Amino acid sequence: MNTRLRIVTLTLLLSLASTASGQPKEFNYDESKVPKFNLPDPLKLSNGDSVKDAAAWRSERRPQVLELFREHVYGRSPKKPRRVFAEVVESGQALEGRATRKQVDIRLQRDGGPVLHVLIYSPAKSNGPTPAFLGLNFNGNHTVSNDPAVPVTKNWVRRGKNNRASADSRGTSASRWQVDRIVKRGYSLVTLYYGDIDPDFDDGFKNGIHPLYLKKGQAKPAADEWGSIAAWAWGLSRVLDYLHTDESIDQTKVAVIGHSRLGKTSLWAGAEDPRFAIVISNNSGCGGAALSRRRFGETVKRINTSFPHWFCDNFNKYNDNENELPVDQHMLVALMAPRPVYIASAEQDRWADPRGEFLSAKFAEPVYRLLNAGGLGAEQMPAVDKPVADRLGYHIRTGKHDVTAYDWDRYLDFADKHYGR
Ligand code: GTR
Question: How far apart, in whole angstroms, are the C-alpha atoms of residue 388 and residue 382?
Answer without folding.
Answer: 7
